[in-house]
Amino acid sequence: MSNPATLSTNVALDAVKTDITLDGPHGPRPKPFFTPRRIILYSILFVACLYYLFPLYVMITTSFKTMPEIRFGNIFAPPIEFTGEAWSKAWSSACTGLTCQGLSPGFWNSIKILIPSVIISTAVAAVNGYGLVNWKFKGSEIFFAVLIFGSFIPYQVMLYPLVMLTREMGIFGTIPAVIMVHTIFGMPILTLLFRNYFASLPPELFKAARVDGAGFWRIFFEVMLPMSLPIVVVALILQVTGIWNDFLFGVVFAGTQNLPMTVQLNNIVNSAQGTPEYNVNMAATMLTGLVPLIVYFVSGRLFVRGVAAGAVKG
Amino acid sequence: MIDNTKTSVSIRNLSLSFGSVQVLQEMNLDVKYGEFIVLLGPSGCGKSTLLNCIAGLLDVTGGQIYISGKNVTWEEPKDRGIGMVFQSYALYPQMTVRKNLSFGLRVAGLPREEIDKRVKRASEMLQIEPLLDRKPANLSGGQRQRVAIGRALVRDVDVFLFDEPLSNLDAKLRADLRVEIKRLHQRLENTMIYVTHDQIEAMTLADRIAIMRDGIIQQLDTPHEIYNRPVNLFVAGFIGSPAMNFIKGDLKSRTFVADGVTLPIDHYAFQPGNEALNANAILGVRPEHVLVGEAANAVPVNFESEIEIVEPMGSDTIAWARIGTQEFTFRADAELNLEPGQKIRLGFDPARASVFDAASGERI
Amino acid sequence: MTDASASERQESGTARYVRQLFTRNISAKIAATPMIVTVLVIFIGCTLWTIYYSFTNSRLLPTGTFVGLDQYTRLFGTSRWNVSVWNLIWYGVFSLSFTLVIGFLLAVLMDQKIRFESAFRTIMLYPFALSFIVTGLVWQWIMNPTLGLQGTMRNLGFDWFTFDWIARSDMVIYALLIAGLWQGTGFMMVLMLAGLRGVDEEIWKASRVDGIPTWRTYLFIVLPMMRGVLVTAVVLAGSGIVRLYDLVVALTRGGPGISSEVPAKYVYDYMFTAGNIGQGLAASTMMLLTVMIIIIPWAYLEFGGRGKKS
């Protein structure tokens, strides 16, 4: 009670008491929603969104218009005579430089390339990442460093030797060649992704499994893999969009019979003879963009995580 | 030479270095069957590293490890007859408690009935039977650590290794599980090697404590000896809370002189051969061995001092005073109502004190 | 005793070495083969092969004889290559600065505790999910002088409105830029936003208590703290720029004339269309050199310094 600190606080409290009234600010601070700052902020974002959305709008509206309507020359206008003709033509009968089968063969080629490429590249990278974290061997870190460094080498540098290599292997101009190239060039980023993920898991888990007597594959399949579902999904998203959108490897390695959808699309739009049919072009473009767009809209946050995770180095 | 077949775990000249950093240096340690050894030391002293070497999770750079008489230096962890409990529990998150317990047994290819039997026995012993079909995410920290202990238990091994198993738990749970581990040890009677930085865990659990620093065992002894007769300044300072008082001064024919204050320490039990030593020395006195007020007059060393700071702890009070110009902490009964500025008589029995050589830090 | 155990240790030391080399963790070594082969054969082997054969006069097949720097002399004597290089430099400078600035500004706007944040983000990022071919073709249509944006605006009565960059050799590079920014800025925004969110909350509390204006905090406190993200952003954007190929193929096919050619397209055309492999390889080696000039200082700063510290 003779504590001087307590004493002075009491005195101060007494002095303040006289000023305390019930008027003036009380309760939560008011937060007006429409401050000038907020209005400017939302306006800028809104304009930015127009820029991002405009091409999608144009793509969709043009694809549902008829050619006469397009020649009228109003890119903003929604279709008056709403027709899906361009879509069906783009899918089944639009002409590339050579044939007139539309995009459908390209779609199926892309699927045939996509599924094995995604599975193989993800599986290889997952094993790589796991090995790099838990089963280091002499030089493993150096191999990884070169791998990451290699991801910055322009593809053009390795393109011709790879053509020769696949030719030697007898797979040039076939789908296995494309799968191989996707696995190789997907390896750096995916390995990095898996390595960082596995490194973030508590190392004791691996130690405990070793004390329990499990070996390389057993720990991978029974302990690590079941825990890595989130990162597997991220890797799948990354690879599905990446491989679907590829143009260069498809055009070089797939061979004329197996050209993926992006290459066929480019051929339809850029090498077709006769008057250009913009509605068919846009329908074809839409069709090609549909797969990654669906992946994007369905995966939402995971896609964001995927691209960010792919970008942030470890 | 010690017969390797008669000890549970023997470490012979073990050393480990990462590049140029020596983590363990020419270490020797013999653990008897059924003994509870605690490896204690500050972080970075190499205690966890040593445990990982014993487990076979780290390859050693030199030396040998024997477990139950067998040289296991190059064996895989699973072939060493050890079970291990980790600080972070390291439960496999996607497996139920039952699967977690039986994973090692399934890997080893044991028959189903045997697995079930062992899981049942372990879960009974640890009272985790109701949890068997839950996932680790649905367990509390204490429950998780019980499961982690159970995973070592089902392996039916000779040696248990604990790597700071209680550090992630709150104070109360830690005390509960400490008792649980002690009970388990008394019941199973197998060898346990336990790493911790918590001296209370070490004092309460250990048969013998190995105090480590910079990859070297400083002292290996019973908790009682370590507390009462620390071999050097490091051990003396590391064990005990609040820390031991170190008073700098000179030792001259069985008297200790610090800042002009003369302290007769005739009763001190010198190490054999050191009785007549004259040297720069440090006198170590545990705060809880200091007598206050009237009682101080009954012991050989006593002096008058002024209290500077008081820290009431509830059951007792820690106070700061001075001997000469040097800080001196002591623990007093809370009922004494000590106040800063108060003059008080303090004293201690040199027989309970420690004297160290100021140059080498070794006990005199 | 000491002698015996010492010799035993030595003997088994050799045995151990052999064992470790071949049998220890054998599964781990087998599992690492794809990575090791990729690194040695593809990333190192193929690159060296390309560099070596860029000094030959190979045409249809890589069988030519050693001609020293001939291919490089010819390369820099070719106007199409020089145009390509200048295009890449201009595109690179603009693209890099605009993506970084716009990405950062958008990220700051998104960081103002706005409503519908995820809707805004979804809209800004979706182009990143699309291929450059799709991007190029859409913008090609929008930029169509007669029926695209320009035609529409003129039809609506704005006779002065001009947006014909795609058909003008002096402006076509900005057409590429608009499409490129449309595709990539959303991603930069996401990256920067992650960087902004990664900054310690207490920095904001401290600057608020100290009364520092928000814009100053962003510019002088938060931005320097985001160094890691910024470096990543520059490296990613940079390596993307050097690879610029699909977008050009889809949007302009290098035209009008050769006014929007880029090095990656030069390489492809000489290797696979013109049948002049030596020339293509020399061009690709120059691309490699450019990337190395960007990457090596960065790698040195990022990892060289860290290596010294640890």
UniProtKB/TrEMBL annotation, chain A:
InterPro entries assigned to the protein according to its UniProt record, in alphabetical order: MetI-like, MetI-like_sf
GO biological process: transmembrane transport
Domain ABC transmembrane type-1: 107-299
UniProt entry tagged with the keyword Magnesium: no
Chain ranges passing through the membrane: 39-60, 113-133, 142-163, 169-194, 215-238, 282-304
Membrane topology field: Multi-pass membrane protein
Keyword Transmembrane included in the entry's annotation: yes
Cellular-component GO terms for this entry: plasma membrane
Record keywords, A-Z: Membrane, Transmembrane, Transmembrane helix, Transport
This protein's name: Glucose/mannose transport system permease protein
UniProt record similarity statement: Belongs to the binding-protein-dependent transport system permease family.
Compartment(s) where it occurs, according to its Swiss-Prot or TrEMBL record: Cell membrane
Pfam families associated with the record: BPD_transp_1 (PF00528)
TrEMBL record, chain B:
Superkingdom of this protein's organism: Bacteria
Keyword check for ATP-binding: yes
Single annotated GO MF: ATP hydrolysis activity
Key words, A-Z: ATP-binding, Nucleotide-binding, Transport
InterPro entries assigned to the protein according to its UniProt record, in alphabetical order: AAA+_ATPase (IPR003593), ABC_transporter-like_ATP-bd (IPR003439), ABC_transporter-like_CS (IPR017871), ABC_transpr_MalK-like (IPR015855), ABC_transpr_MalK/UgpC-like (IPR047641), Mo/tungstate-bd_C_term_dom (IPR008995), NA-bd_OB-fold (IPR012340), OB_MalK-like (IPR040582)
Pfam families associated with the record: ABC_tran, OB_MalK
Primary site of residence: membrane
Subcellular location: Cell inner membrane
BP terms from Gene Ontology: carbohydrate transport
Cellular compartments per GO CC: ATP-binding cassette (ABC) transporter complex, substrate-binding subunit-containing
Membrane topology of the entry: Peripheral membrane protein
Residue span(s) of domain ABC transporter: 9-239
Similarity comment: family membership: Belongs to the ABC transporter superfamily.
Family matches, as NCBIfam families: PRK11650.1
The protein's name in its UniProt record: Carbohydrate ABC transporter ATP-binding protein, CUT1 family
Protein source organism: Pelagibacterium luteolum
Organism taxonomic ancestry: Bacteria, Pseudomonadati, Pseudomonadota, Alphaproteobacteria, Hyphomicrobiales
Automatic annotation (TrEMBL), chain C:
Keyword Transport set for record: yes
Protein localization: Cell membrane
SUPFAM superfamilies membership: MetI-like (SSF161098)
Domain named ABC transmembrane type-1: residues: 85-300
GO biological process: transmembrane transport
Keywords: Cell membrane, Membrane, Transmembrane, Transmembrane helix, Transport
Membrane topology: Multi-pass membrane protein
GO cellular component: plasma membrane
A Pfam family per the record: BPD_transp_1
Membrane-spanning intervals of the chain: 30-52, 88-110, 122-142, 171-196, 217-242, 281-301
PANTHER family listed in its UniProt record: ABC TRANSPORTER PERMEASE PROTEIN (PTHR30193:SF42)
Stated family: Belongs to the binding-protein-dependent transport system permease family.
Listed name of the protein: Carbohydrate ABC transporter membrane protein 1, CUT1 family (TC 3.A.1.1.-)
